[in-house]
Design brief:
The structure holds 2 protein chains of 2 kinds. By secondary structure, chain A is of the alpha/beta class. Chain A has 24 helices and 12 strands. Chain A has 3 domains: about 1-205 and about 235-330, ABC transporter transmembrane region fold (Up-down Bundle); about 340-390, no CATH class; about 390-470 and about 580-638, P-loop containing nucleotide triphosphate hydrolases (Rossmann fold). In chain A, α7 runs antiparallel to α11 (about 225-280), α8 (about 180-195) runs antiparallel to α11 and α11 (about 225-280) packs across α12 (about 285-350). Chain B has 2 domains: about 1-320, ABC transporter type 1, transmembrane domain (ABC transporter transmembrane region fold), CATH 1.20.1560; about 340-425 and about 495-575, Rossmann fold, CATH 3.40.50.300. Chain A: Keywords: ATP-binding, Membrane, Nucleotide-binding, Transmembrane, Transmembrane helix.
Chain lengths: ~650, ~575
């Protein structure tokens, strides 16, 4: 409860309160069940004490106790069922929360992995969606129900003991706070200690994996034997460092258990004194208290264990929250920007060109329309007007385009620029100058931080991108091969139904027929993950086959730098030439041949588009460009 | 299962800690039982108004037992955890020793990183086998047996009932959970693997998916897979919960049984009433110890799975390299002479690949000659070097070094006579000096610094720290350090796999110069990814798709205008792709 309040206070409510809010009914149910569970716990003790009193003190015949026995067994059964029910609800909450967390994570990952690609490894993201979410499980399935139980049942027991016998109740009341206190102490001290030893632990724990990874190197340098000793040494050092931390925790646990045991001992002593010396208590009451006391302490100890588990889970949840927040900020940022853009569109371009004001209004309307789902006929017509089929290849217009990645310093400034239909564009620059980022922005694969890309005069937004991608093919340096057959991998290039003949034709045009003949099931052989592995050249050609099938009007192409076989090289050159006849081609160019043939070269340096023009023009007017061409030549020829 | 036997051998070596922890656990358990029994007896005794001193005696006993319990618990925890971590250390060294002869065969796959991480994880989950699977039943059974013995002094029937309770909680309930698990066994793992590979596919294939409009579809599939995983995990957890609930009901039921049985025994006079409260307390406490058994099947399954998987991984790798270890070939290369290498109609295919890497390669590297191997990526260049290094055996054909077939050569001797730069040489956490992997301590400080200077790393100090996998080094620095490593070896055969691919031209030339100077009387084979500076090589070998396309000197190859010539033409066209990241 407290948490959700502070969460709301922080303006943007946290992930956890948000998740828990969805389960208010369930937590309420756990509370009610815990009340009943407490009652059953006390009831069990009462009946047990009652039975012993009758048998032992009053010497009752077993036959007269059948009702008590039956009732006791019934209460025990109810108690088991109630605890089971609480556990089940906890699992249900955990399952729902995990599903929700995973869905959110996957959605943000799917929304745009290119943005975060620079910051994290793919493996890390996969483990976030799997392992970290599983780590969060404990908070919902264990911590939540256990904490609720621990906050209700001991209180009930305490009240019961107070009613039965005030001094015993006081003993419990005074010793109880020590338990959470020591639990907290354990937490703080171990955390402190492990932070102190963190560097050491990291060093020792990594040695094994490090050695395995470098095994070939170790063997070649004759060091494998020596490394075995090194592993032993570091593992033992790891053990000692960890034991230092654990010793602190165990010492505190020792103190805690001593308190519990002494508490029980004091209660027992005090009860005995009451019984023998003061003679003001019945056996029944004393035995009942004796039965209740361990239940009381056990529950408090459980709370401690649950608390520790909960902290690990909380860490995991915080991790997820951070990832979500990073991407979330970006989403709201881009959303805010598109608003700004339409405003700017009205003020800046509105004065010069009425047309563009109209289009940005249409954009705003199209966003609304998309969310409403029903479009007025007039609007549908206007949308068709804005991007008619025949306008492909379209003019591509960059307007004050800039982009920066979330966490690092790299910024891209492309300014404004018009790419006319059918033009051949080459993007040139050193590695790290922002060529790929620029191409991704033009393609609509990255949301611009400011400015916009206009396709045939119409801003490229999320709403219009499906339309746009129908006409685009992007051949990367490392085309991705999906797990599936060769034919399926080619057919992914288009969303229309394609015949087998079309697929085979595209494959042949891309020079894949020899490969198909080599594979045991031809085009029906499974490739990609878990299937036949393909060489780099074959992957390139498969990507070409996708393009041949699609016949895009805009072709984006990241020219391979090294390592292609001549066969693929030749096919690639031919294919691009052929595809470019009906398409605008934008290439990240590495070959002088491509660059010379381009209608226009975009030269990038340190994230800025510093010049554009033909090869000859740039040689004359842009010294960094001339220098780059010159250096490369010198490097290779001498 | 040899993995478990390996584990038990390791356990045997840690027997002192293990015995101490068992002792601690037993004492703690027994002290608890006695403590509560004594309290029950104490209260019951008061009914007869006993002399005060018996009460004082009993309560002191209760206090002392409380301390004993806490103290032995402490000891138990300490020793059992120590044993666990010592076991881990032994397991690691044992598995490492087993892995050494299997490398690089086991490491050659594309996902060797995953495989290694998996091995590390599996060994780690084996370490908990002791703490969570082997250990708890020992404690439970011993504490129970002692309690049963204790109870048998008062009533053999109650003792038998406790015995029955132990059998049910320690064996029947876990067995019940295991049966439930069998049904869902592997489902969670399969769903996890499916979700993981689909997520990976989405992340790597993002551009293609987005451009081809398949993103939505993929996302839906992912969400569905996530849902199924959660369902599977849920049903797994429910099984465990059911086991726990069953367990707690059995403990209640046994206490109830003690009560009812006690009532009848007291009624027919075969047991004194004063012991009833005590026995009930004892039966309730003794089950505290067995709570850990309810979750045991989950851990047991995990470690069994880990052991199985390790077993399979190793068995598969060991069967691939069989026969090698039995008779270690003893032939050695002669010292102080350059090595000649000959490949005769060599075919090679990686075990897991569907087509050969090399088909019918015949090559001659004369003693003292310098050869460059060029060709597109994936053409088999690296495999030629690996075969000469005896890291793999050719599927067909002969490799001969200095007239001796490679099969008869002692691999370790061969490696000590070879100066190697691998494409992805490994760097370990440690200092620069550690990472030079020196053969002995005979090199002076100054010599080492000179070598660093030669490879253009004058800024590095020998005591600079390098992180795992050299992650604090740039690719160029790694390559230069790898070359420094080779320069410090005294072999007469140089095998270099794209040693300078991440360096800029100026540095590349300088470093190659230093290397060629050192190797001027030695045999050198270098896989090159660039075609610059090959004029001085005695021989250039052009490989494509596992076949030798051309061989000859630079001038010869340029003259015939074949494959090499055309590759050179393409390279001349290249712009903006070779600049060093650090430049």
């Amino acid at each position: 409860m407290k948490k959700s309040k502070t969460g709301r206070g922080r303006q943007k409510s946290g992930l956890l309160p948000e998740l828990m809010a969805a389960h208010q009914k369930r937590t309420l149910l756990i509370r009610l069940l815990s009340l009943a569970l407490g009652a059953a716990t006390i009831g069990q003790a009462v009946l047990l004490a009652q039975a012993v009193q009758r048998i032992f003190v009053e010497k009752a015949a077993p036959a007269s106790l059948i009702a008590v026995f039956a009732l006791l067994l019934g209460v025990m059964a109810v108690r088991t069922l109630l605890a089971h029910a609480n556990g089940r609800i906890g699992l249900r909450i955990a399952a729902d929360a995990k599903k929700e967390l995973r869905a959110r994570l996957l959605r943000t990952l799917a929304a745009n992995p290119l943005i975060t690609a620079r910051q994290g490894q793919t493996g890390g993201k996969v483990s976030l969606a799997l392992d970290t979410v599983d780590e969060a499980d404990g908070y919902f399935s264990q911590y939540t129900p256990k904490m609720i139980e621990a906050s209700i049942i001991p209180l009930l027991i305490l009240i019961a003991v107070f009613i039965l016998h005030v001094p015993s109740g006081l003993i419990l009341l005074f010793t109880a706070p020590f338990i959470p206190l020591f639990m907290a102490l354990i937490g703080i001290q171990t955390k402190h200690k492990s932070e102190e030893k963190f560097e050491q632990l990291a060093r020792f724990s990594g040695t094994f994996l490090d050695s395995l990874q470098g095994l070939v190197t170790l063997k070649l340098f004759g060091r494998a034997k020596r490394q075995e000793r090194e592993i032993e040494r570091s593992s033992l050092s790891y053990r000692d460092a960890t034991m230092d931390i654990l010793r602190v925790a165990f010492t505190n646990t020792f103190a805690l258990e001593t308190i519990v045991m002494l508490g029980i001992g004091i209660v027992a002593l005090e009860l005995a004194l009451q019984l023998v010396v003061f003679k003001n208590m019945q056996f029944h009451t004393a035995f009942l208290i004796l039965l209740l006391v361990p239940e009381f302490y056990n529950l408090l100890k459980n709370m401690g264990t649950a608390f520790h588990g909960g902290r690990t889970s909380l860490g995991a949840i915080r991790n997820i929250e951070l990832t979500l927040a990073e991407n979330g900020i970006r989403e709201t940022q881009t959303a805010g920007q598109s608003d700004n853009q339409s405003v700017r569109g009205n003020t800046v371009t509105g004065s010069t060109m009425m047309g563009s004001t109209v289009t940005s209004d249409v954009d705003a309307a199209s966003d609304l329309g998309a969310s409403r789902g029903d479009q007025t006929p007039a609007f549908a017509a206007s949308q068709e007007d804005s991007v008619p089929e025949k306008s492909f290849p379209p003019a591509i217009e960059l307007s004050e385009l800039s982009f920066h990645y979330g966490s690092d310093a790299f910024t891209l400034n492309a300014g404004s620029l018009l790419i006319e239909p059918g033009q051949q564009i080459a993007i040139v620059g050193k590695s790290g100058s922002g060529k790929t980022t620029l191409l991704h922005l033009i393609a609509g694969l990255l949301p611009p931080s400011s400015g916009e890309v206009r396709i045939a005069g119409r801003a490229l937004t999320q709403a219009s991108e499906d339309d746009w991608f129908k006409h685009v093919t992007y051949i990367t340096q490392h085309p991705y091969i999906f797990a599936g057959t060769v034919a399926e991998n080619i057919a992914i290039g288009t969303d229309r139904d394609v015949s087998r003949t079309e697929i085979v034709q595209a494959a042949e045009a891309a020079g894949l027929s020899a490969l198909a003949a080599e594979l045991e099931h031809g085009y029906d052989t499974i490739v990609g993950d878990g299937g036949r592995g393909l060489s780099g050249g074959e992957k390139q050609r498969l990507a070409l086959a996708r393009a041949f099938l699609k016949r895009p009007s805009v072709l984006l192409f990241d020219e391979p730098t090294v390592g292609l076989d001549l066969h693929t090289e030749r096919i690639l050159m031919q294919a691009i030439a052929e595809l470019s006849q009906q398409a605008t081609v934008i290439t990240i160019a590495h070959r002088l041949h491509t660059i010379r043939q381009a209608d226009r070269i975009l030269f990038m340096e340190q994230g800025r588009l510093i010049g554009s023009g033909s090869h000859e023009e740039l040689l004359d007017t842009l010294p960094p460009y001339a220098q780059m061409v010159e250096i490369q030549r010198k490097g290779i020829t001498t | 299962m040899s993995e478990f036997s390996l584990f038990f051998r390791a356990m045997l070596k840690e027997r002192k800690d293990i015995l101490l922890s068992i002792l601690g656990g037993f004492l703690a358990g027994i002290a608890g039982v006695v403590l509560f029994s004594a309290s029950g007896y104490l209260i019951a005794k008061t009914v007869f108004v006993p002399p005060l001193y018996t009460l004082i005696l009993l309560t002191s006993l209760v206090k002392i037992l409380g301390l004993v319990r806490a103290a032995s618990r402490y000891g138990e925890r300490l020793f059992s955890h120590r044993a666990t971590f010592s076991l881990l250390s032994r397991l690691r060294t044992d598995f490492f020793a087993r892995l050494v002869p299997l490398a690089p065969g086991i490491l050659n796959r594309k996902r060797s990183g995953d495989l290694l991480a998996r091995i590390v994880g599996d060994i780690e989950s084996l370490q908990f086998y002791f703490l969570r699977v082997a250990y708890p039943p020992i404690i439970v059974v011993s504490v129970f047996l002692a309690t049963v013995l204790f109870a048998s002094f008062f009533s053999i029937w109650i003792a038998l009932l406790l015995m029955l309770g132990m059998l049910i909680t320690a064996f029947a309930v876990p067995a019940f959970v295991r049966i439930g698990q069998h049904k869902t066994d592997g489902r969670v793992r399969r769903q996890r693997a499916a979700l993981s590979s689909e997520t990976t596919e989405l992340l790597y294939g993002f551009i293609d998916l987005k451009v081809y409009g398949r993103l939505q579809q993929c996302e839906q599939a992912l969400l569905a897979a996530s849902g199924e995983l959660t369902e599977a995990q849920q049903s797994d957890a429910l099984h465990l919960l059911r086991g726990q609930s069953l367990h707690s009901f059995v403990t209640f039921f046994v206490s109830w049984g003690v009560l009812v049985l006690g009532a009848f025994l007291i009624a027919n006079g075969s047991m004194a009433g004063v012991f009833l409260a005590m026995l009930i307390m004892a039966s309730m406490t003794v089950f505290d110890e067995s709570a850990a058994l309810a979750t045991l099947p989950a851990y047991k399954r995990d470690s069994a799975f880990a052991a199985n998987r390790l077993g399979e991984t190793f068995a598969a790798a060991e069967s691939n390299t069989d026969g090698k270890a039995d008779s270690k070939p003893a032939a050695k290369l002669e010292r102080d002479a350059a090595v000649s290498v000959e490949l005769d109609n060599v075919h090679f295919r990686y075990a897991e690949d569907w087509r050969p890497v090399l088909s019918g390669v015949s090559l001659q590297f004369e003693a003292g000659s310098k050869t460059a191997i060029v060709g597109p990526s994936g053409s088999g260049k690296t495999s030629i070097l690996e075969l000469i290094l005896k890291l793999h055996a050719p599927t067909e054909g002969r490799i001969v070094l200095n007239g001796t077939p490679i099969g008869e050569l002692d691999a370790e001797d061969l490696w000590s006579r070879t100066n190697v730069v691998l494409q992805a040489g490994h760097f370990f956490r440690g200092t620069v000096r550690d990472n030079l992997l020196l053969e002995d301590d005979s090199r002076s400080e100054q010599e080492l610094l000179n070598v660093l200077e030669q490879v253009n790393l004058p800024g590095k100090r020998l005591d600079d720290l390098i992180l795992e996998k050299g992650e604090n080094l740039s690719d160029g620095e790694k390559q230069r350090l790898a070359i420094a490593r080779a320069l410090l070896k005294s072999g007469r055969l140089w095998l270099l796999d794209e040693p300078t691919s991440s360096l800029d031209y100026v540095t590349e030339r300088r470093v190659l110069e230093a290397m060629l100077e050192r190797a001027k009387d030695d045999t050198l084979v270098m896989v090159c990814h660039r075609l610059a500076g090959l004029e001085r090589m005695d021989q250039i070998v052009v490989v494509d798709r596992g076949v030798i396309v051309e061989t000859g000197t630079y001038d010869q190859l340029m003259q015939i205008r074949g494959y090499f010539y055309e590759m050179k033409q393409i390279e001349r066209q290249m712009i903006g792709s070779f600049d060093d990241a650090e430049a």
